[in-house]
Structure formats: C-alpha cells, structure tokens
Amino acid sequence: MVADAAAQPNKLRWGELEEDDGEDLDFLLPPKQVIGPDQNGIKKVIEYKYNEEGNRVKITTTIRIRKLANARLSKRAVERRSWSKFGDAVHEDVGARLTMVSTEEILLERPKAPGSKQEENAPGDLLPKGGAVLMVCRTCGKKGDHWTSRCPYKDLANPADVFVDKPPSEARPTTPGGSKSSSYVPPSMRAGAAERGGADMGRRRHEENSVRVTNLSEDTREPDLLELFRPFGPVSRVYVAVDQKTGYSRGFGFVNFVSREDAERAISKLNGYGYDNLILRVEWAAPRTN
Amino acid sequence: MRPILMKGHERPLTFLKYNRDGDLLFSCAKDHNPTVWFADNGERLGTYRGHNGAVWCCDVSRDSSLLITGSADQSAKLWSVQTGSPLFTFNFESPTRSVDFSVGDKLAVITTDPFMGSSSAIHVKRIAQDPNDQDAESVLVLKGPQGRINRAVWGPLNRTIISAGEDSVIRIWDSETGKLLKESEKEIGHKKAITSLAKSIDGSHFLTGSLDKSAKLWDTRTLTLLKTYATERPVNAVTMSPLLDHVVLGGGQDASSVTTTDHRAGKFEAKFYDKILQEEIGGVKGHFGPINALAFNPDGRSFASGGEDGYVRLHHMDADYFNIKL
C-alpha cells in the first residue's frame, strides 16, 4: 500500500479551507479509480481523502489478485467437496485420527548428495565392492579378493611367517593361529606362543621405534600423520586412535619408524610443532606397564 | 514437504487411483473396503462396503460417477462413487486381479487369476449407461497367458488391450477380435513377473515394473522398448508424472523378509527417475514396508504412495521439485 501525501495540485486555497473547518469536503475529492487487474493479477485502487490536518491525501492501493487453488478445480470437483460422507466415514469419531500430517519433513533425497551414496549400500553389498585398496588379506597378501577372515589359504599359511614377513599392521589378526584342529586353542597355547607371550602378543611388533603423538586435532587421519612424519625416514606404521562412535580422532596416535635415529630426529623436530592450530606433543611411546 | 498420512486401511495397500479431476483418491487394500479420500487434505470421504476379500484394483469413470473394483472374492463390482452403494456385481470363477475402464467408459476389461484348474483370463464387459440395464455378459474373453495377469489396460482408441503378468511377457491384443497382435521379445523384455503397468497421460507409451528390479518404458503402438530403469530392489508399483519427464518406481524387498533385515536395507523409498536420461533424481522415504501402489495426481503436483504398512502417504511436492536439474 502506497500513500503519497498531498501530491495533487490543490485548486482550493488552503487559507479558505481553514475557515470551513469541520465541514464535510468529500465532494471536492476526485472519484475513486480502479485500474486493472492486469494479466499479472495486479489491481490498483486510487482513493483520495482528507487526513486529520485537512490535507488532501491520495491513497494508492496495489493488490495482487491470485486465484486460490480451489478456484482451479472444476465445477464438479467443487460440488464433490460438499458430498456427504458414506460407508465407514459416516461414523468417524473425532479421535480416530485417520488422516495426519507427517511430523517429519520428508525431502526428495538426491542420490548425488555427498556421502549419501555410501550409506545407501546395504552392509551386504559393501563387502564385495569394498574397494581394492581397502581389502588386503593379511594372510596371503592378496589385494581386493577377500578379507583376511575369508582367506582360503588361512589354514595353509604358517602363522609364524605371518608375523615375521609382513610389515606390522595395527589390526590384530582375526584368524586364529594355524591350528589344524577345529577346537579352540587360546592364543597363549598356540604354536609360537613362547615368543609372543599372551597379552602383548600384538603389541610387541609395535614397540620398535614407536613414537607417540598427542594433541592431534580431531580431523587428523593416518595419511596426514604419515605425510608429517615421512620426511624423517621410512615409516613402518601409522595409527591414529579413532572414536568408534563419532568417527573423529581421539587426539593421539602412534608412528613407528624403521630406524631409531629417524625416530629421534622426528621427536626433536616435531615436539612442540604447531599442527592444525594445536601444539603437537611427540615423545617415545612408553611400553605399557602390566 | 510434509506428507499427509492416511491410515484408513488395516491391511497392506494394493492399488491407488486418482479421478480425472485429481480431487479424489481411491485406495484399495487387502482389507475389504476400498476407500475414497479428498486428494487435497486427505480427508476420508467414504468407504465402499460389500466386498468379501482383498481388493486388488479399481478404476473410476471419467465423470467420477462410477467406480469399478476387482476383488479376490471372485467378483468385480460397480459402485456409485457419490453414495458408496453397490450398483452391480460381476461374478467370476476365480479372483479378479485388474480392472480398467475404456476411453468413454462404455467397456471395462477385467482380468481373473488362475484358480482351481481354470487358467487366467481377460474379460471385456459392456458397461451400461444406466446401471439397471447392466448385464454380466462378457463381450470377449481372452485366454492363453500362463500365470496371473497382473494388469490389463486399454490401448489407444480402445482398439487394443495391453496385458502383463507373471509370465513377464507384455501382450497387445485386438480388442475386437481377441487376436494376439504383439508380444514383447524375451531378450529385451522383463526377466521376472511384471507387477505393475502405468500408461502415460496421452497413452502413447507405458511403463512396466517388474520383480527383476527394473522398470521399462514401451511404445504403446509398436511395443518397442524405449527405456529401462534399473533399481536395486523389486519394483511393485510404477507411475509417471503427467507434468514433468519423471517416472516413479516403488518397491522393496519381499514383505516376508522385512523383519529380518535392517530398515535401511529394505529400500522402501519411492524412487524418482528422469524419464529420458534414465538417471535417478531422488528418493522419497517414509514407508516402513514395501510400496505396493503409486499414483500421480493428474495435475502433476502431488503423488500418493501406498505401502505394505497399511498407510497411504500423500505428497504435495515442494516448489523446488519443479526446478530440479540433473
């Protein structure tokens, strides 16, 4: 609504008007004008009136006329709207709540939205498609063919060799040692248990030249850490503790170097290094005391 | 969008149909009462009481006065849409699976299931102007296809009847002589049972959904395969947008295995595909059972889906749906 005050040229002298104060002067006003509605449904109404101070005011009202959804319905559809209920709908009690509006906002989910594609795969589908890089069998070393637990050669491989030949990896082997009998044998009783020794079976291989890195930012991942430490020398293992629930880093990780000198240099250089807004703390990983 | 949920049925939905003006939505379910709803707000207008078995299919005449339903109680019934009173009952020897009015509403095609030794059949009935003159005489009976005929619809100018069913072959019959005119070829056709068939708004092409996890678009006259839409679940229901080049597929795993798997693995969304590019546009979630029925409002601005969960969900599309670019 637009109101422009006293835009109209005044033929009456305003001095005279003051004398006639209180008199009804509406007859002096131009008549009301209606323009439109045009093809866009815009209708203009121009009115004139006096305000409290006696000034003539032109009021232009712009209205957009829109047809209601109902108006689009055919005559018959409108008629059907008033049909009386029948069948079970006649005795519908108010509490029945047959028709409800969803409390949940449902969107047309686009398939290409980032991240959504992965989630759509059923857990069953994921296995064979898991990606060649991800799937490396730790028993036979085959890439992209099967998981370690499904290795067809797992019973044939010598368990001792598995640990010696392979670069250490953070995940513990899921296959039990190569015992041929089907009954369960605890790890401490298996062949080669003497050198591994029960609880720290998986850890020993991680203790060589192991460097602990703490105060990592929560989106640090293993490749980032590898990139950071590789310049000091060959790295045999990188591990970042990840919270299982949130998927974010828990703020610490371990890096194993092939040689002790490289590890020492890395500690001296990177301890106190600013990484991702945080000051890193790098130190020798203390063997767990137990 | 916030879909409208309609919980009028106690059993899984089987079929949904809009009338021509798009103001009424008819729903059929395995309970015995087809229901009519106002398509704008989802208010229930009435139920059609009289069937004694699951109702598989329905169709409404162009003037929205006459409803025909096909039921597993071995009958098809004509109803007055306004009052819900049954006008006529066609009795058969076996459950009726699909019904469809011809253009002009003078004929109806009704399919019956194989039952107690009798094979499946397609019946053509004459629909009288005045329900009092209605007779049960079949104008034409077509037999031949093995297994259930899940859907039979009229072709252009009522000259043909298109049927599809469990034997995964689409057939085009001459509606005058009953001669088999065309059959879809084995190599290009569906590999498993066809569950649904939907004609385009102009009738020039139609879409079939099958348990072989795909939907196919066919030319109505020549029965040439135009497009194939591949999904990762069996397709139970298909529909086409009359406004945009979109097709909607609904499905999900078998109802019998639903409880044994993750709800996300069930894939109970209604999937939108671009009709021409055959690319997926998006999915509309919500049902917690497979989708058995889909229907697009003739104005193209809303669609309804019916699921094994007994709900009809009425979706009025958001404005941004109409501007989706691939």
TrEMBL record, chain A:
<dbReference type="GO" id="GO:0003743">
    <property type="term" value="F:translation initiation factor activity"/>
</dbReference>
<dbReference type="GO" id="GO:0003723">
    <property type="term" value="F:RNA binding"/>
</dbReference>
<feature type="region of interest" description="Disordered">
    <location>
        <begin position="162"/>
        <end position="214"/>
    </location>
</feature>
<comment type="subunit">
    <text>Component of the eukaryotic translation initiation factor 3 (eIF-3) complex.</text>
</comment>
<keyword id="KW-0396">Initiation factor</keyword>
<dbReference type="InterPro" id="IPR035979">
    <property type="entry name" value="RBD_domain_sf"/>
</dbReference>
<dbReference type="InterPro" id="IPR024675">
    <property type="entry name" value="eIF3g_N"/>
</dbReference>
<keyword id="KW-0963">Cytoplasm</keyword>
<dbReference type="GO" id="GO:0016282">
    <property type="term" value="C:eukaryotic 43S preinitiation complex"/>
</dbReference>
<dbReference type="GO" id="GO:0001732">
    <property type="term" value="P:formation of cytoplasmic translation initiation complex"/>
</dbReference>
<dbReference type="GO" id="GO:0033290">
    <property type="term" value="C:eukaryotic 48S preinitiation complex"/>
</dbReference>
<feature type="domain" description="RRM">
    <location>
        <begin position="209"/>
        <end position="287"/>
    </location>
</feature>
<dbReference type="GO" id="GO:0005852">
    <property type="term" value="C:eukaryotic translation initiation factor 3 complex"/>
</dbReference>
<dbReference type="InterPro" id="IPR000504">
    <property type="entry name" value="RRM_dom"/>
</dbReference>
<keyword id="KW-0694">RNA-binding</keyword>
<protein>
    <recommendedName>
        <fullName>Eukaryotic translation initiation factor 3 subunit G</fullName>
    </recommendedName>
</protein>
<feature type="compositionally biased region" description="Polar residues">
    <location>
        <begin position="176"/>
        <end position="185"/>
    </location>
</feature>
<dbReference type="Pfam" id="PF00076">
    <property type="entry name" value="RRM_1"/>
</dbReference>
<comment type="similarity">
    <text>Belongs to the eIF-3 subunit G family.</text>
</comment>
<dbReference type="InterPro" id="IPR017334">
    <property type="entry name" value="eIF3_g"/>
</dbReference>
<dbReference type="InterPro" id="IPR012677">
    <property type="entry name" value="Nucleotide-bd_a/b_plait_sf"/>
</dbReference>
<keyword id="KW-0648">Protein biosynthesis</keyword>
Automatic annotation (TrEMBL), chain B:
<dbReference type="InterPro" id="IPR015943">
    <property type="entry name" value="WD40/YVTN_repeat-like_dom_sf"/>
</dbReference>
<keyword id="KW-0648">Protein biosynthesis</keyword>
<dbReference type="InterPro" id="IPR019775">
    <property type="entry name" value="WD40_repeat_CS"/>
</dbReference>
<dbReference type="GO" id="GO:0016282">
    <property type="term" value="C:eukaryotic 43S preinitiation complex"/>
</dbReference>
<dbReference type="InterPro" id="IPR020472">
    <property type="entry name" value="WD40_PAC1"/>
</dbReference>
<protein>
    <recommendedName>
        <fullName>Eukaryotic translation initiation factor 3 subunit I</fullName>
    </recommendedName>
</protein>
<dbReference type="InterPro" id="IPR036322">
    <property type="entry name" value="WD40_repeat_dom_sf"/>
</dbReference>
<feature type="repeat" description="WD">
    <location>
        <begin position="6"/>
        <end position="47"/>
    </location>
</feature>
<dbReference type="GO" id="GO:0071541">
    <property type="term" value="C:eukaryotic translation initiation factor 3 complex, eIF3m"/>
</dbReference>
<dbReference type="GO" id="GO:0003743">
    <property type="term" value="F:translation initiation factor activity"/>
</dbReference>
<comment type="similarity">
    <text>Belongs to the eIF-3 subunit I family.</text>
</comment>
<dbReference type="Pfam" id="PF24805">
    <property type="entry name" value="EIF3I"/>
</dbReference>
<feature type="repeat" description="WD">
    <location>
        <begin position="284"/>
        <end position="314"/>
    </location>
</feature>
<feature type="repeat" description="WD">
    <location>
        <begin position="48"/>
        <end position="89"/>
    </location>
</feature>
<dbReference type="InterPro" id="IPR001680">
    <property type="entry name" value="WD40_rpt"/>
</dbReference>
<dbReference type="GO" id="GO:0033290">
    <property type="term" value="C:eukaryotic 48S preinitiation complex"/>
</dbReference>
<feature type="repeat" description="WD">
    <location>
        <begin position="187"/>
        <end position="228"/>
    </location>
</feature>
<dbReference type="GO" id="GO:0003723">
    <property type="term" value="F:RNA binding"/>
</dbReference>
<keyword id="KW-0677">Repeat</keyword>
<keyword id="KW-0396">Initiation factor</keyword>
<comment type="subunit">
    <text>Component of the eukaryotic translation initiation factor 3 (eIF-3) complex.</text>
</comment>
<feature type="repeat" description="WD">
    <location>
        <begin position="142"/>
        <end position="183"/>
    </location>
</feature>
